[in-house]
Amino acid sequence: MDIGAGQKFMIFLVISQALAIIMVAMAIVWTTRTLDGFAWDGSYKQFNLHPLCMVCGFILLYGEAAIAFRVFSEHSKFFVKVIHGAFHMLAFIAAIVGLKAVFDFHNHSNIPNMYSLHSWCGLTTVLLFSLQFLFGFLSFFWPGAVTSIRDMYMPIHRYFGLGILFLAAISTISGISEKLFFKFKADPAYSQLPSGAVIGNCLGLCVLAYVFVVGYILHNPQWQRSDGLESQSLTGFTRPTRYDTESD
Asked: Is the dihedral of CA 181, 187, 190, 194 positive or negative?
């Protein structure tokens, strides 16, 4: 049976949302049961907000923002821009809360900041995301944006948008691995794969799977909005392959 572009899109969209639900569920279970829950007192329980914010807030919200122009293809571009920007704002807030949590924990416990490769990748990701958010707002949402500058910036915006999402995934899985080594450095050892280690490993794989599926949705030119047109239904037709001139 020949499956049209619309049906293929729906299949990958459903897969991405199923992975999102599983990812969030595992992040909550891992941080509440394996890492013992949350607090805001500088203790290790405050640190636990860091992985939760980065997985549920940064990875998920950023990924959902990235595919908003595909999912809401029948709506006006201004409406989708608002959705796109709102998800990015929420992701930014989650990242700030996550960074605050880990820096407070380190300072409270006299642990050096920014010494690991994970921390370098993570802070680089947040800084690039912040610049992407700022330049995207000025180029595609600000009323006084110059069309020529917007058109010039569009390929850069798309390239770095997807790249930052993958960098966020790299930062997340390296952070999960680092936390598991610290958590299970004694008995039971990480090499013995206690249940908390299994959940952490599966969470990392789910993050990668979600980002790869979102990346494919963004990469497929058949599923991009047509240039200057309000798209038809996502079922039963082949999308135009031209790139649009608005923000993704």
From this structure: negative
